[in-house]
Structures are given as C-alpha cells and as structure tokens.
Specification:
Order of helices and strands of chain B: HHEEHEEEE
Number of helices of chain A: 0
Distance between the termini of chain A: 43 Å
Oligomer: heterodimer
Number of domains of chain B: 1
Helix content of chain A: under 10%
Order of helices and strands of chain A: EEEE
Distance between the termini of chain B: 38 Å
CATH topology of chain B: Nuclear Transport Factor 2, Chain: A
CATH class of chain B: Alpha Beta
CATH architecture of chain B: Roll
Number of helices of chain B: 3
Strand content of chain B: 35-45%
Strand order of the largest sheet of chain B: 2-1-6-5-4-3
CATH class of one domain in chain A: Alpha Beta
CATH architecture of one domain in chain A: Roll
Structural class of chain A: mainly beta
Chain lengths: 85, 148
C-alpha cells in the first residue's frame, strides 16, 4: 500500500484549521503490477476540548469531460499555472 | 465584541461572499465569480488538470465553463456548512448546475465543494477551492448523475 503526502499546506491560528495536499496512493495488485495515482485532498479541522479533530475531508480525482473517466495518471507538475506578465 | 459575536459576523461575511459568487455565476460574470479569490488561490477542479494555481487560471477556467453554455446558468448550493476561526475558515456544500450546453445538451449535475479562506488584511479571502464528483470504482467513470 502506497500513500504519500506531497505539497502539504496547513493554515491555522486558533481552533480552526484546514490543509490541502496531493496524495500519491495505490498499491500492488494480485498480478504484481503497481497501480499508483495522484489524488487531491482537503481536510478541515476543529480543536475540540484541546484536541484537533477532522470535521471534513474531501478526497478526489478529476475527470476527463470528453470520456467521463476519472483520471489517475495526471502528474503534479501539470498545474495549469499561469504566470503573471 | 464577544468571541461569539465575532464568529457570527465572520460566518455572515463568508455567507455573503458565497451568495455574491452564486449570483455572479448565474450571470456568467467572471470578475464577480473570482472577486474573493487570493492571487495565488489553489484550485482542485472537477475536471483535469490535477490543479490550477492563481486567480488568472481561475478566470480562464471560468471563461471556458461559461462559454460552454447557451443562455442562463441555474446554480444552487445545498447543505452549506461554514466553520470559522480567527484567521482561517472553511465551507463545504453540495452544488448543482443546470444549463443547456452550446451543442444543445441539457446538463444537470451535482458536485462536492470545499472552499477554504484566510483573513488577509481584515478580509476573508479564498485561498483554496476543491470541487469534485466521486467515481465508480468498478468502471472508473465519474459519477455525474448523483443527487443529494
């Protein structure tokens, strides 16, 4: 089982926090082939009685609008970033 | 102001930002749709790529999305939940779009939305948006016809 966390960013000050990251996850199938894809994760936390608890989790892969298929072969460098002139 | 009063104010402010954005989306108003976005907002959108960075990328994506529809866009949010702290907040909802595409297809789709805010210079600012649909594990198809 593979579950890596990349590009983690956490925002917090008091008793509310959120974070987002890209997760490379998957594992080795019965046929010995490794199947790994990138997923996007956003997690919302509240500090309740002094303890940080996850109150919301959003985990997904984007889909291809042409085929309607979820996409697991996208790479993080493909950010669609547009640099300011 | 009490901490409770501050929190109620912050929640009302974020709710107003969400309402304003919904109105802008229905009007296909790009400026209004991104007016609360930070310049370096990080977007995880329903369709590829994996991520977009920056409000300019958000504008480009919205322009493509709006131009794929003929006539008005019907847009609604359901089950909105807002959690606010002093400087960080997040909201999640189920969002629906109903519209006719330029090639005449009727689109009626729900997706999951999470929007994260930071208070920057006293203003709640969107720094991260995550929008997605789940997928069917057996077929690998995105689930575009689920309803809440």
């Amino acid at each position: 089982m593979i579950c890596e966390v990349h590009d983690l960013d956490i925002a917090t000050r008091d008793d509310v926090a959120f974070c987002h990251y890209l997760s490379r996850c998957g594992g080795t199938g019965a046929d010995g082939e490794e199947k790994v894809g990138w997923m996007r994760a956003t997690v919302g936390f509240r500090r309740i009685s002094g303890k940080w608890l996850v109150v919301h989790e959003h985990f997904s892969a984007p889909f291809d609008p042409e085929s309607g298929k979820a996409l697991f072969d996208l790479e993080p460098q493909n950010t669609g970033r547009i640099e300011a002139a | 102001m009490t901490a409770q009063g501050r929190r109620a104010n912050d929640e009302a402010r974020i709710r107003a930002l969400i309402d304003d954005q919904a109105k802008a989306i229905r009007a296909k108003d790009i400026d209004g749709s991104v007016s609360s976005y930070a310049p370096d907002v990080l977007l995880f959108d329903v369709i590829n790529p994996l991520q977009h960075v920056g409000s300019e990328a958000a504008r480009k994506r919205l322009a493509e999305w709006f131009s794929s529809f003929r006539g008005p866009i019907d847009y609604e949010l359901r089950d909105l939940s807002i959690t606010t702290g002093d400087d960080a907040a997040f909201a999640h909802s189920l969002n629906r779009v109903s519209a006719t595409t330029t090639d005449g297809r009727k689109l009626d789709m729900w997706w999951r939305a999470t929007v994260c805010y930071r208070k920057l210079d006293g203003e709640w600012t969107v720094t991260h948006v995550h929008a997605s649909v789940p997928f069917d594990v057996a077929s690998g198809q995105a689930s575009l016809d689920l309803k809440p």
